[in-house]
Records
---
Amino acid sequence: MFEAVVLICRYLFVFYMFYFLLQAGKCVLSPYNIHHINISWAYSKQRMTIVFFHLTAMLIIGFKPETGMFDIYTVILGSAGLILLIGGNIILSFIYKNGSKLLFNCTFFVMDIGFIMLLRLNTALAQRQIIWLITGFVATMLIPPILRVLPRLDKLKYLYLALGFSLLAATLIFGDVQGGAQNWIKIKGFSFQPAELVKLLFVFYLASEFSQKPSSFKELIFPSAASAVFVICLVMQTDLGSALIFFMSYLIMIYIATGNGFIFAGLSIFAFAASMLAYKFFSHVRTRVEIWLDPWSDISGKGYQITQSLFAIGTWGIFGSGLTRGYAENIPVVERDFIFAAVCEEFGIIFSVGFIFVFIFIFFCGAKAALRNYNRFLSLVASGLTGLLCFQSFLIIGGVTKLIPLTGVTLPFVSYGGTSIVISFVSIGIIQWIYAMNTLREQQEFFDRRT
Amino acid sequence: MKKNIKFIFWFYFSLFLLLIIHLVKFKVSDSSDLISNSYNPRLNSIEATIKRGTIYDRNGEALAYSEKISGDEKYIRNYNYPREFSHILGFISNGKSGVESKYNFYLESLHNELFQRINAVFNHSELTADSIVLTIDKDLQLEAYRLLEGKKGAVVALEPDTGKILSMVSYPDFDPENISQNWQELSEDEESPLINRASQGLYPPGSTFKIITAASAIENIDDIMSRRYNCKGEEYFDDKKIRCFNLKAHGNVNLTGAFAYSCNTFFSQLGNELGGEKLRLNAENALFNKDLGYELEYNKSSFALTKYSSQSEIVETSIGQGKTLATPLHMAMIAAAAGNNGIMMKPYVLDYVKTYNDKIKNQTVPVMQAKPFSPDTAYEITQMMEKVVEEGTGVQAKIKGVITAGKTGTAENSSGDDHAWFVGFAPADKPKICVCVILENAGSGSKAVPTAQKLMQRYLEKS
């Protein structure tokens, strides 16, 4: 009986996703007056969808058919997660009064999907994820007051640079090796990934460097050299995913600042050549590419992870196996890098495509924040942070579906991982703050014109 | 700057679009081939709770089925003719092989899953996965097994105009029901009973390869049909001596005669004249070194000549010795192509999939795999193959009232006595069946002929 309920709920999940996206689409189209909607209603509908999604999933995960009872621990944990996410959404929307509600709804929806997946895969990790979510939530609440006190962020470029370098250097010297990359620092049993924090500093550094439009090529040399040092440090830690993300952030920010197509093309060619060299000289790069090209020949060894991921995505029908019916726990580190494969397996391919679309909506809001701004620095920060999240999501989703070679990075908002969750949360906070500033300014101008 | 930001986000947007397209494409078209892998834990756990699909022969007779033993929760797999079908059906424990492995996806998918599950809750009905219907003819398979039993070798029978495989037997065999208990012994056995010799066994094709050499001669040498040659039983090419079987001198022969009596000196002469490059072209047109398009386990046949090959290699290859290796399945396909106006069909065993409520899906449509011969060449070769049976080395293949075509082969090899080959089809003008038989170390090619004759005769009588 329970089996049949789980199977029916697969359609329900697809419906939730569809409904959520429908409301998101309406919100995006509303300024064009294509058809009139009550926009605050649409936001409320989205929040209700998240609640229903969460409740449905939680009840399925919590029910134990052997005993015919609900597992109290799972239900309590799930309820705590629900209260946190919905409460967080409401409080943050209040704090960032002029921010984008669509951005918060989408972010909280993907966070919720990630949390549900963790609850299903590993309740102990779900419990710890709650602590990380609270940390990220508090940090995001503190952003507006902090930024109000620190007015001239664009003048601190050497501070960002020094902090960033020292964090990376510290990782190189004191770092622990986890999952094949030396990118962790352990302090009193708490391990965190400095590279995540350095990402923020890096974007702020480049934004302040380019906050005056570069007038000659000479002015590009120093920031390029600094970026190269960052990337090389990360390659030395064998953290290829982060190295790629840093390079991409540098590439897009230099393009946005200069608008020079030749630089963009030249750097892309340079990156291609550099990756060929890396392929030639670093065995770990070669291994990654070889696994990508043919994981099947070493299916029990190096190809195990990616083939298990492909099995998870490919075995079931388009509605997935049904929540709790899959075998995603067979994929190594499914809670971190491979969480997308688990979502694909249990919620099905239609839901997963919708899931990618929710991400696209998040990036759309980020791009909007960058586009509406009059301040060059803030506009660069918004596009840098959005681009970072965007490329990171592409890297890992592309990696687990074997579109591109796998680089071990987390899926923002979704994967388990303290630093990742907190930093992506904070990034959204900063983007929201910039978005809110724009709204305020527009209102001010509107007011000025009238008086 | 706004323009630049827009450009970057359109760029990222297209990356995500690519991601979605890739994901959907993987799901729709690539995944079904990949997931039937023994490393996929999902398939094993599905097996325990649902009734694995039945495998039927072409006339609807069950070959393999699952049932629950009373009192036991798990399903077990039963085979009606375990040894006779061991290689073609394969097994499901110890990593799976054969049809059981390749079509595992169908055998474990529930049609109308939701309906079946709800029905199971209220009516306690079984969850029944899709069944598959093969092209194999059970009676022909049993007959082939009976004829082959005790002798190392393989038999393949197929339908030339569709590529349907009617029978495929390999000996030594194994018992799929007790595969786990005997696994160690089976996998270490020097006779390699787990190998399907019919599609995986690579043998020197011997004189059956003369079909290719003859085709190359017909297509490349203008006066070939009127050419005559005096066979003295042996011939020297450089330092390489080519001998006819038993050193028999065939005297003054033409192409048809040399083909019928399998004259090695004539054909090595032809090979020498054609050269490595032309022979390779014809061999590769007939899918040597190429994919056969067959879905189950098989090995590619190999042909090693190039334009730099030495004369001795060329003359050896043109009579099917040297480094040339072919599978019985492939030789059957070549002969079938000669009988089918030069068109080689893609061989297949899965006719269609049948759901629990008898709906047909995934019906295989016959497709052409290659065109090794022009219609004229195919006609000439068929004529020559008829002569083989009429008066040449394959007279034992004669069937009363039916014109039969064939070619024998005697393959020298390093493992002992010569392997005996026969490929043939009947009726010669519009073949309904093509058979290939190989008997390892049986001596001359004529030893394989009676087996093929009995199978063809039996099949034609029935249909």
---
Amino acid sequence: MSRLKGAPSPPSAARPVGTAGFVLPALVLIGVFLVFPALWTIYLGLTDYRLTGLEAADPRVVGLDNYTAALGDERFRGSLWLTVQFVLGSAVIGQAVLGFAIAWVLRDRRGPVKRVTEGLVLLAWILPSSVVAFLWIALLDRDEGTLNALLHTPGAAWLLDHPMPSIIVFNVWRGTAFSMMLYGAALSNVPPSLLETARLAGASTLQQLRDVVLPHIKGHVLTNLLLISLWTFNDFSTFQITAGGPDGRSEILPVYIYNVALSGGRLGFGAAISFLVLLVNLVFAVAYLRLLRSRRTDATPKAAP
Amino acid sequence: MSEHSKPERSQANRHREGRGGEVTDERAESEGRATPSEEGTSRLKGRPEPAERSEAIRHAVAVIGRATFLAAVLGFFALPLLWLATAPFDARPGITVSVPEFTLRNFQALLDNPYALTSLRNSLIQAGGSAVLVVTLAALAAYALSRARVPGRDALLYVLLLLSSVVTGTAAMVPLFELATRLGLIDTHLGVVLTLSGGLLPAAIFIMKDFMDGTPTSYEESARVFGASSGQILRHVVIPLVRPGLATIAVWAVANVWGSFLQPFILLRDPDKAPGAVILYTLYTEGGAPRLDLISTFSLLYSLPVVVMYVFVSRRYGFRFHGGIKS
């Protein structure tokens, strides 16, 4: 501040305003409710802090015990594996592929079909998670679910017998909108003349996709995969459908942390797992930002000719 | 580092242009109208050649394939939503989707339930409080950051944006719960508002700075010449210019908080303070046969504002993508 005031500002440049006073309130709020919790997770993860009991009053620092305990814990390793299935199955494969397919098929369509399709896909994305969770519980209900009525499979308990496929399909339904819109925008950047040339040369659809479309939208594909993986990895809405059950068979990491830390009271242990989630998030986010930066530098020379 | 503020922005622009571009796209064809290549072949229709015939077959297969695919997509996305459209108006709402025996009496159930309308009021308080806080703080910070030459400004913005997408509710639920407990914020609206605002602010500042950068500084210069203070300039000169930006942030913050489940679920134990998201969850998980008349009407009422806001924003400003905007 003082440095800014001291320096004579050139008449044309914007003058310094009460920078610190204007920025400070936002920074304080971000500091207390975003930065501090992240740092505190690291500390809490090194303690045996609990919600109740002796350790609640007087937590001890136990070093890396929580981490070694987690590695030895069957339930944690199981949860990790389910999370990998969930992210790969519902985001990387499900949302990305379905989103691209819809964008591809709708790319040169107009009219009500396009609008209705996009509208429904978007609706699944914007409705509050509590609402969609119940919609899926109703859809998959054992006795009166619409799905069983349609398939003539009365009594099929989808959420009990196939919890993982259920929440994977649910999350594909929930999140495809983002991929659809991103790829829709990306596809409109592919020069139509190139596709036309490829088609006249007798290229099949797959060849067109591989040789013409993919090189043009590579950056978008990566952006999309990074973001939807990050979001899916942190998604808590499946808690409202299965709560991780039955017997932890759909207990992905976010649900696991809740069940262990806040429901089970092992706050220190839960914080340790949270820190691992933070690290994975950081890898995704840094990769995303680097991608944006490199695309920026890539684009500069290409823009010239 | 100043060029770092641009990738995100240019990306957002590109998406916007992408969507806009589609409308004027040369490829725009009404359904069924022939593509240039087909026009070329139809001119030769007099003497069909094997290559053309196979091309025609390929085209037919593609059309059928596309139609089948779209029908499947429509079915998949519509199926779960049908219940929300029919059950609230069904005299005997069941879990199965059925043609409703039309009634509006189910909405009476909302009035009879002690928590239903209170929870919507709570959602309003929390969403409105967060929106006011986020808009105010983001506008102040973005204005200052946009106008002042502070070393490391863009690096700071990027680190904050990075943090907001890294420190999610899932990753920080333990410390957030602890923090709220120690600050005495458990079971308060303020706790939910502060917690959620902290996560929304970085992206809000980022978007707001975009709007601020786009406004000319000459008005401010002349206001300053006439002796206006920074606060006066902000209030009377800058705010009117960036009003669309403020509206965008406000609607975005409201939509985010309105749908939030995890944070209020953790921070509020008292059902009198719980927002719609949490009350709806307890309606279908806690004890006994679920009251479907109540759940269906409540779901509908609780969803409507989000849908309306979304339509409003996308109509007015188009879709924008920012890292962490939906978290």
